[in-house]
Write a structure and sequence with these properties.
Blueprint: E1 2-10, H1 42-49, H2 76-82, H3 86-90, E2 104-105, E3 111-112, E4 132-135, H4 139-151, E5 156-159, E6 175-178, E7 185-191, E8 202-209, H5 214-223, E9 226-227, H6 243-246, H7 254-257, H8 260-263, E10 264-270, E11 276-280, H9 285-291, E12 301-308, E13 310-311, E14 315-324, H10 331-349, E15 352-360, E16 367-376, H11 380-399, E17 405-415, H12 418-424, E18 436-444, H13 445-450, H14 452-459, E19 465-467
Parallel strand pairs: 4-6, 5-6
Antiparallel strand pairs: 1-18, 1-19, 2-3, 7-8, 8-12, 9-13, 10-11, 10-12, 14-16, 14-17, 15-16, 15-19
The structure holds flavin-adenine dinucleotide (FAD).
Length: about 475
């Protein structure tokens, strides 16, 4: 068992000074950026256009409809309404899930950005949003795009949804390959990887184009009464065949069926010279190995991934939420957090997965501990034994705490399938569009088993973290 810990940091960019900065320069950089003398000419782009199925993209920052301030170019009300909507952002080539990644901060502290808040009086500039690129729909589009980028030495970014937690799917002065519209989904009653013997045929596999997002993938497998190891986010907006699987692919179903990479049977990929590879355990096996965890964009542009699906089993769902009257960890919260950390190896052995978070209330700043858990094909008796005890502890601590700790909710319930759980129990509130930076650590099981109190003492003061 490994625990994945996410730490969230809020970074306010508004204190920086603003500038209508000059276009980026590639002096001292190895790639050709927009504004440099080496940037391709209009004729170069016209000849690229002839090879593409779609018009060239000219991505804009998501707040651009609000500008110029005197005569907004688009529907600024919509921008305000949708700003935190993860789907709205994922559908735009110029938007990231985290607003800060759209902003560029120069080494002297000045900023190029396009703020939703027009009252700042700052003109909208391109920031770190790519200036031009390809709305890829097939291999031919991708091959033309990568060859063009390579021949002009452009800074290339590949983007499906903009969920990258370090902002790597956007870059100032870059050329973008947007895979978002590569939405093909093919179900295979039987799938044999290319080059494999017939004896390695897999029943019930699914091939997803690299623009497919988890909501779409879950709907497709549910229609076949199957389940797919996949990620969680409000609205199912994370890419199902992009950065998620290339980085490993964590899922609440992983204790039963492995990580995303354990379920990948085959990748198709376009390399930087435009060569198309079909990689699996039988051909280009090294590339297959590398793609399963080597990171987004490291080896080429993935065009599709074929996954093993699994039987659609019922599960037990559990969740709890507590709040405190304090902005720093108080005694009952510390006891409860410690209890949960001590319990984690046992929960893992019993087949539970899920997330728990320590976070301040967005309005009051008071800390709270909350979590949700899933046990595939589990029993209510077992669930009550494992988690019922913890929920009772929470209630007892709250009862004795004189309002220092409050239990807002706690429940354990059977659910017919993963998709029903995902739609009804997983929080669907959008949390996109803010300034944030997230760090994560893999915590080996023995660290928790050997010194759980030290884990508690280390993590608790951080006051904003999520453990999965
Ligand atoms: C709200 C939220 C929820 C999340 N939930 C989970 C979760 O449950 N489990 C989990 O494991 N992770 C989760 N993540 C992390 C997420 O899996 C990674 O950020 C992942 O890289 C996102 O991939 P993407 O393709 O959706 O995003 P993008 O931002 O489009 O791409 C991410 C990276 O992959 C590259 N890339 C994208 N498409 C391709 C392609 N076709 N070929 C080559 N490179 C490509 C990009 O260049 C970039 O480097 C979550 C992140 C967020 C913001």
């Amino acid at each position: 068992m490994l625990l994945l810990i996410f730490l969230f940091g809020l970074r306010l960019l508004l204190n920086a000074t603003f500038s209508r900065a000059a276009p980026p320069s590639s002096q001292d950089r190895c790639r050709c950026l927009f504004g440099d003398a080496c940037w391709p000419s209009t004729d170069d782009f016209a000849s690229l256009q002839k090879q593409l199925s779609q018009p060239l993209l000219h991505p804009l920052p998501p707040a651009s409809p609000c500008y110029p301030i005197s005569h907004p170019s688009g529907d600024c009300d919509e921008v305000h309404q949708q700003w935190t909507n993860a789907s709205w952002r994922a559908h735009q080539p110029g938007a990231m899930q985290g607003e800060n990644f759209e902003t560029f901060v120069f080494s002297n502290g000045t900023t190029s950005a396009c703020f939703m808040d027009t009252s700042l009086g700052v003109p909208c500039t391109q920031g770190s949003v790519p200036v031009i690129g390809v709305d890829a729909r097939d291999d031919v589009d991708l091959q033309a795009a990568v060859r063009f980028a390579a021949s002009h030495n452009l800074r290339l970014v590949v983007k499906g949804t903009g969920h990258d937690l370090s902002g790597r799917s956007t870059a100032r002065g870059s050329f973008i390959i947007w895979t978002h519209n590569m939405k093909n989904i093919t179900f295979h009653d039987t799938f044999t990887p290319q080059g494999a013997p017939q004896s390695d045929a897999h029943d019930h596999a699914i091939t997803l184009g690299s623009g497919v997002q988890w909501q779409e993938a879950y709907e497709a497998v549910t229609a076949k009464n199957r389940v797919l190891v996949g990620g969680l986010s409000a609205g199912g907006t994370v890419g199902a065949a992009g950065g998620w699987v290339l980085g490993g692919g964590h899922s609440v179903l992983s204790p039963s069926f492995g990580l995303g990479v354990d379920n990948a049977l085959q990748f198709t990929m376009i390399s930087s010279n435009g060569t198309r590879y079909v990689a699996n355990a039988y051909q280009y096996a090294n590339l297959f190995f590398a793609l399963r965890g080597g990171g987004g964009g490291t080896y080429g542009v993935v065009t599709s991934v074929t996954y093993q699906t699994h039987p659609n089993l019922p599960l037990i769902a559990a969740a709890f939420a507590t709040s405190t009257n304090s902005t720093t960890p108080n005694a009952p919260l510390e006891t409860l957090f410690s209890d949960l950390i001590h319990l984690t190896p046992e929960l893992s052995d019993a087949g539970w997965s899920g997330f728990f978070s320590l976070a301040p209330d967005p309005t009051t700043g008071a800390l709270g501990l909350s979590g949700f858990f899933v046990m595939l094909n589990g029993t209510l008796d077992r669930a009550n034994e494992d988690l019922g005890r913890f929920f009772s502890t929470a209630q007892s601590l709250a009862n004795a705490s004189d309002n220092a700790l409050t239990v807002q909710t706690s429940f354990i319930t059977p659910v017919d399938s993963f998709f029903i759980w995902y739609q009804n129990f997983f929080p669907q509130t959008s949390s996109a569009g803010s300034n944030g930076a997230i760090g994560s650590w893999l915590l080996p099981r023995d660290v928790i088993e050997q010194d759980p109190d030290r884990v508690v003492k280390t993590l608790l003061p951080l006051t904003i973290l999520s453990i999965s």
